[in-house]
Structure formats: structure tokens, C-alpha cells
Design brief:
homodimer; 298 residues; alpha/beta; 11 helices; 43% helix; elongated
């Protein structure tokens, strides 16, 4: 450890097609020069490596438990101290890996990352930021894309600040922010959207409500919403187009590089997520987002 | 009045392109044999008829006020007693028209319909039912597609019952019901979805959670969700595909035929909504849905 190579900790047990598709994805990422360490049940991971015709090709760190998709992630992680996602997050905390990738429960990944890595200064609630390719060629940062199903209006202000910081790191100058809603008029939406709109008005760059077609057009650089609505938006766009869900999303607000891959990810999507994680680590993405957050409020 | 022809009351002032596109749509529906009465500002409607080269081609009922898209519909309708949507709904209540169509504020249409026509017995909260064409060729009833932005878990049980009754009228035998969610496992979702899931389990035909791809595949006959999430789902699918939003949606749970057209509807979509309304009236759709609701609980 400690060398210059960026090593990615991959939760071998997370995702609908784990461990086979995850292990196969790790091998593909490795073939492109990314260091990967697999975390999970040693027997199951060894069998998957064997099946892929590559026994002992990758380092494995043992973890005896798994957070299932149907479990309450926060509760499961309190009781399952040897869960693969938790052990993988601790590899990043200890410096043995530079980034974490999981295709398992998003809530579980967020909780494990929070427990092992902690929050960025000034962040109350981490969230998932997804990049949506827009019709005019830009990338729209969607926050929260599925981290926390419930959110208070105040949380959406934090999402907007983290999303704007991420957009700035990606190259946006003075990013514009929109609130995902069912109409562009200020009074539209449910109780959460109306209250969030009132709070967001105080934020530089806030342009008001944006409807789904506006997000997909690229009308704003950052779109904020609660994690339930954001995830429904993302999954609907993906189901209709067949494309949006291929790429991994980043966890914003934790002190380290953490990416969530699609639960249904196949080997190629896992490999792509691992490459993205290595890039994020090499670029020091989470540190830059933290710096932008401090600059934005300073 | 009182003849055998089905007459549709059309809110000439509702929608992004009103009154021009609405009046043009009315003329197209009229050309296909549907009787239409326009409701709105007489000067504006006459000008639109003139612009369309058809002065005096359609009957006009005067209404001096309009519910704007940015207004709180329930509040606006209490103060604007001569709002076009309210006058149009009263034409249905008095029997001067057999159905109501508006491309204006969905909340306004729902409130006006409720005030003028009342609820179907056993219905606590009316909702909007949209038909989603599925990949396997079926039509999925989505309730609530945008009637009420906020909903309590109990309301979703009512939506499921109304949606199932509508599906039965459309020909489904023992329709299956799903709860729109971000995962298929029972514990998934926000507070509303989790609580609704527990209540819906008691309902015949309930299959559990369904993700956006499942809805679009046609995994269930009826999908229930709150009006905010339903509208985001519909608008996202429509923005990506360019198609789902063309058709009007029906208001379920009010004692009369009421259809909401897309706010951005152009003439052809308005004409199609008017044709759908005439069909619904000829078939006595709302009465059949009411009968199915009574049968379902009897």
C-alpha cells in the first residue's frame, strides 16, 4: 500500500448480479490498469474469480456479512459490523484504498461511507449526485439521486450547495440551480417543494422550478430534489431511454471518494464505475468539492 | 340541449396556448362530429374563432375570469366564481354538457369538478388517472397522475380502488395493482411509500412495489402513487420519449366525465381530448367506475 497507484475498494457482494458481474467488472477494470481490491465472502469471491477463469487475479479482503436490498440499511449496518460495504469503506478510511464503489443498496453505501469517512465540514446530510446528459450537450448534476428517500426542505438547500460545488469542480462557472417540480410557477408542487422553493430563493444561482423536460434539455446546471423523487426521475428516464443508468453516481458530502453503481449493473458498468472512482480519487474530487463548499459559504 | 348528441364543455382559457390552440382544437373535434361548447372570455374566444377563419362556428358560454397556472387552485376558485373552468363544470352539472375538458391547471379542474359535480359515493379524494402505453401492449392506469401534490397513505388505497375500477371498465379482469417505488422490496421508499405499502397489502390484486421500468413494461394493470411523484414520472417519460403526454387523463372519483388535457396541448391534442371526453360520456364511464367501486367494496 501507499504507492502512487490508485486502488479502488469494490464491494463484491453488492448488486443484483453480485458477485459474478462485480468480479468480472473488476477484472475488466484491472485489465485497463486500475488497481482493485475485492471485499466480500472469500469463498464466493474465489468461486467467481474461478468461474471467470482468473483465480487469484485480484486481492480479496474478507467480509462475512452482506446488507440485503430489502433491509433498512442504517439498522443493518449497526448490527452487521462485518458487512462487505462497511469493510470496504474502512479500507478507504485507513488509506488502504483511495475510493469505494458499490452496486449494492445506495442507503447502505451512504451510511457505511458516513460511518467510516465522516462528513465534509458544513454538510449536514450527504447525498447522491448523478450526472444527466442533457440534449444541449451539458451534464446536469442531479442531487439527491437516491441517497435519502425522505428530506426536509432545509436538506435541499444543502443538496443545492453540494451540487453547485460539484458542478464547479466539473468546470461550470457560477452554476445555475433548479428545483425539480411539476410546474415552473413558484406556487407549484407538494409541501416539500413549496417550502424548499422559499428557502432556495436565497441561494445565488437559483433559477426557480424546473420540470423534467427542462432538466433533460439542460436548462440548469444543477437540479435538486429529494432522493425519492430524484430516483424515480432517474429510473424513469433510464427505463424509457435505456441509457441514463449506465453510469455510476457520486456520494457528495462525505470525506472521501465514494461511488454508487446501478443495482442492476453488469460487468461493463461495474468496470466503468471503478474507472470513474479511480479518476475521482486521482483528481481529489471530494476534497475539491469540500473546498468549493467552504469557498461558497466563506 | 337535451338531444341525443354528446356535447363537450371545453375550457377555452385553460392551457399554455389558450385560447388559440384550444379553439382550433374545438374546431377540429367539431369537424369530426363532436358537439363542443367553448367557455371563456367572449372577446378572446371570438377573436380566436375569427383568427381560425371560423367566426360564430361554435357556441360560446361567457366566463369573465381565469384560474392562472401560478395560483393556488382551491383558493382561486373560491374567489373567482366566474372562472371559465368553474362555469364549464357547471354546464356538466346542469346537463347542458355531457363532459368537461380543460388543458388548464389540473388542480383547478379537479376542484371545479368536485364543487360542481360532487364525489362518487365512497370516494374521499378524487384523483387523475392516466393511461400509460406499456411495452407489452397493455395500458397501465396511473393514479394519481397529478391531481393532488400531497397525499396521505390512506389516499393511495382509494387511488388503487379507483384505478382498479377504471381498469375493469377498460376490460381488465381482476386487475393487478402496484405501488410506484424506487425498489421492489417491501421496505423500500420514503415514509409515504412505506406506510402505503402496509395498507395496500390488504387489497385484492396488490402485487407490491413496482419500479418505473416495471410500469413501462406493463408488469401491473394499475400503478398508484401520490400526484407529485406520478406527475414527475409522467413528465419524465414524456420528455424522454416525446409521446406519453399527448393523451388526456381522466378525473376519477367525481360524478361526471372530466378530462384534463396536457397544459402544453396544441390543437390536435385538444381535439383528441374532446373526442375522448365524448367517448367517455357516451359510454357512461364515470358511472361504470362508480358501479365497479361499489361492487368492489360490497
Amino acid at each position: 500500500m501507499g504507492g502512487p497507484a490508485v486502488r479502488v475498494a469494490l464491494d463484491a457482494m453488492g448488486g443484483d448480479h453480485a458477485p459474478a458481474a462485480v468480479v468480472e467488472g473488476a477484472l475488466r477494470a484491472r485489465a485497463k490498469g486500475v488497481e482493485v481490491v475485492l471485499v466480500g465472502d472469500p469463498g464466493a469471491v474465489a468461486a467467481a474469480l474461478n468461474d471467470a477463469g482468473a483465480p487469484d487475479a485480484l486481492p480479496v479482503v474478507a467480509a462475512s456479512e452482506v446488507v440485503d436490498m430489502g433491509e433498512d440499511a442504517a439498522f443493518a449496518l449497526r448490527t452487521k459490523r462485518d458487512a462487505s460495504i462497511r469493510v470496504a469503506a474502512e479500507l478507504v478510511a485507513s488509506g488502504e484504498a483511495a475510493a469505494l464503489v458499490s452496486a449494492g443498496s445506495t442507503g447502505g453505501t451512504l451510511t457505511a461511507a458516513l460511518l467510516a469517512l465522516g462528513r465534509v465540514t458544513g454538510v449536514r446530510r450527504p447525498a447522491v449526485g448523478a450526472l444527466i446528459p442533457s440534449m444541449r450537450g451539458s451534464r446536469v448534476v442531479l442531487v439527491d439521486a437516491g441517497g435519502s428517500a425522505d428530506a426536509q426542505p432545509e436538506a435541499l438547500v444543502g443538496y443545492a450547495r453540494m451540487g453547485a460545488a460539484y458542478a464547479e469542480v466539473l468546470g461550470s462557472v457560477a452554476p445555475t440551480i433548479g428545483l425539480l417540480n411539476v410546474g415552473v410557477e413558484a406556487g407549484k408542487g407538494n409541501t416539500l417543494a413549496k417550502a424548499a422553493h422559499r428557502l432556495l430563493r436565497e441561494l445565488p444561482g437559483f433559477m426557480g422550478n424546473v420540470e423534467p423536460d427542462g432538466v433533460l434539455y439542460g436548462a440548469v446546471d444543477v437540479t435538486v430534489t429529494d432522493g425519492f423523487t430524484g430516483n424515480v426521475f432517474l429510473k424513469t428516464a433510464e427505463a424509457v431511454s435505456g441509457g441514463y443508468g449506465d453510469r455510476a453516481a457520486i456520494v457528495l458530502g462525505v470525506a472521501g471518494e465514494v461511488l454508487v453503481a446501478h443495482g442492476a449493473a453488469r460487468a461493463e458498468e461495474v468496470a466503468e464505475a471503478v474507472r470513474m472512482a479511480a479518476e475521482a480519487a486521482a483528481a481529489g474530487l471530494s476534497g475539491k468539492v469540500a473546498a468549493e463548499l467552504i469557498r461558497g459559504t466563506g
